[in-house]
């Protein structure tokens, strides 16, 4: 324990900014001091909440890069809580107290670390879960192959997840012999007019090869156009 | 009720509330900025995130004081004209925090105050979300809480969808994940 305290103190010494010193000097009285900014950042569960707010404030549906740094920091904090929790429990056992019924200072210290651990876990789970939902949507919107700039925003497990999910959906669609990702809005006409957004070269459409040039307008099968529109290569042409 | 993975619910629980410790706790000095050893003493008054305050209250380890944005002054202001009160600067999760505090406080009027507030502001939010131009950010959004912003955006989206349907616009679109801006490709 003493070593623990020394380390914590060192950390405070290193991380205090001049502004913090100013703020602490004048507010010495008990119960009157508010937390400084550095202390605020070290508050239990604060980084985990930061991680989640990054995701929640993302209004325009764009996927951001997986925040490995912050994610690891939260895991680090959780480890610290676990370590502290264990220390308290061992101490209570050594004093011959019954952990289930005693409610002393150590018990409440342990309780707070336990609650923080649970909270951090919830934040991490929520981060991973909500991202996995976005990854699932990618399969429906963009098909089995992701563009390179999206690829690099996923971390390793998310890439694995995408691949497995894609395979699963693919094999299900093969078994029922139906492409579920097309006709998400009920079609009025099996054919559709589209404008090409980029030089795509030779594309196999309706069993014959067609050259799609930028800004040219084509009439093609709706089912074939839908995935290309979703990928941003074509645009529905109304005019 | 909210789910375990709900981000908005999770962030509402991060809002600070003022708490009075009924017990002492060792090894959690960071919670109390005025403690000199690594402990929190009995009777210490500190700001804790709601998730921690909630559980400590349920275990009778702490009292919770209502945050200042639920005090009488704000309530009077709200009675005068709910639509004009700036909620966002007071607490972005006004309703979320309020709902969570209802079972934890002995103030029986809190629940009805929240309902009164939302009822007073709802019509205004709905009208403005339907009439505001799509690309601009109307002034009213600056005073909305996070929950109200979500309502506002839902209203706006339904209006855009309705207009599109009436004009018989395009029905298939580029996926939103790719972003809105088109890259100037293929121009040599």
UniProtKB/TrEMBL annotation, chain A:
Its main location: nucleus. It comes from the Eukaryota. Belongs to the GINS1/PSF1 family. It is found in: Nucleus. Residues 104-176 form the GINS subunit domain. This is DNA replication complex GINS protein PSF1. InterPro entries: GINS_A (IPR021151), GINS_bundle-like_dom_sf (IPR036224), GINS_Psf1 (IPR005339), PSF1_C (IPR056783). PANTHER family: DNA REPLICATION COMPLEX GINS PROTEIN PSF1 (PTHR12914:SF2), PARTNER OF SLD5 (PTHR12914). Transmembrane segments: none annotated. One of its GO terms (cellular component) is GINS complex. Residues 188-238 form the DNA replication complex GINS protein PSF1 C-terminal domain. Keywords: DNA replication, Nucleus. GO terms for biological process: DNA strand elongation involved in mitotic DNA replication.
Automatic annotation (TrEMBL), chain B:
It comes from the Eukaryota. Residues 69-166 form the GINS subunit domain. GO terms for cellular component: GINS complex. One of its GO terms (biological process) is mitotic DNA replication initiation. It is found in: Nucleus. InterPro entries: GINS_A, GINS_bundle-like_dom_sf, GINS_Psf3, GINS_Psf3_sf, PSF3_N. Transmembrane segments: none annotated. Residues 5-57 form the DNA replication complex GINS protein PSF3 N-terminal domain. Belongs to the GINS3/PSF3 family. PANTHER family: DNA REPLICATION COMPLEX GINS PROTEIN PSF3. This is GINS subunit domain-containing protein. It comes from Adiantum capillus-veneris.
